[in-house]
Amino acid sequence: MEWEMIIGLETHVELSTRTKAFCSCSVSFGGLPNSRCCPVCAGLPGALPRLNGQMVDYTARLALALGCQISPVIAFDRKNYFYPDLPKGYQISQFHTPLGREGTLPIRTEKGEKQIRIAELHMEEDAGKLIHDRETGLTQIDLNRCGVPLVEIVTQPDFRSAQEVLDYLERLRLICLYLGISDCKMQEGSLRCDVNLSLRPKGSSQLGTRTEMKNLGSFRAVARAIYAEALRQQQILESGGHIRQETRRWDEDQDRSEPMRPKETAADYRYFPEPDLPPLRLDRKLLERWRWQQPELAHEKLERYQSRWGLSEEDAQLISKSRGLADYYERLVALGTDPREGANWIRTDLLRLLKERGEGTEKVPLPPAMLARVISMTKEGRINRGKASQVLEHCFATGEDPEDYCRRNGLEQVRDRELIAQTVRQVLTDHPAQTGQYRAGQEKVFAFLVGRCMRALGGKADPKLVNELLREMLNS
Ligand SMILES: [Zn+2]
Fold it and tell me: What is the C-alpha to C-alpha distance for residues 411 and 145, in angstroms, rounded to an integer?
């Protein structure tokens, strides 16, 4: 029997606000254990939460970018459960009125574009970290992460393969980076996802029993976990067994998952409105401003670079992957550089130089005007392509203007028609044998004669012009 995979995702993104969701502790990663912690974080009796406006701002921007409907009232609920990394005994989350609902994110599949439906998007706080010491058998707790603002994005079960999931995650990551609301570092846990997966016979319209997989710390782990879980479920179903609805933990070292606990339902959490945080009405003007300020997103640029500027998918992807690089590229084009040529220079020279200097693409130190000038000098035939790379390298390192540098070092190509014609005439006089051979139909001597002319001009002549004049004189 053939099986179809049905996958839904719950993704948590840690917001890079300055302070935590409900207190003024810093959210930065790392630091001494329990050094970013206060009575609110520790859930001490009587400590009261205070809403961080930046968290609402960031979440609303993401909700708008995903095309969600925005709830006019922001309210929080308590999600009750006991776990040592959550000292309050409940998590402040949004259950009854999530900030955003019913959005979409387009992904690319082999069959073209596909819309992944976003069921909802809500704010909540993160829990602390438990550190299990195998040697002593003791467990320590670090509350630095307690209360860090999170946005959870829940999709409908719209994915049919691991590849679709990875494409979605990459696009979501780029959206957050473009909006500047999270650094989305999977290795530091600021982007995490849980995978809900079930199988059903191909062609069936009923959903099977699903499991939820947690603890997926990298794109690779997500892909591995999906393959492994699909295979596990298939083996159970094919041997006549039933899938248990449960939460499973993915073990990246062992490359397999193990059961953690039976899957809870909403009723288990005894949600109720958070009494310490009054509901907040979202100003319509504020919403308009967020909508208006939204930048063009990575997948929109990807589309435009290909359809309007004629870039290859590879180049368009490479450039739109970083907002800094995309901004740089667009400034380059605005300066009159041909879009495809500009992309070509970025892919070859610029990225190589950035890599050699250990620079990222978010803030390119070479002004776009400088690159634009080197490109136009090459195009006008004033310097050849090989020299142009050297010029760029020098200007990148020193900040010197490319025109000045070329002038100072005599790098500009000789484009003086009269001078080149004179040299060509001399070369032909000096090589009567080869000239005769060419005229007798031996085309390959031509390259030899070009070489002689170039050498006579100190390697600085415009090769196009040399070719043209040489051909003209040989044929006359
Ligand atoms: Zn705190």
Answer: 57
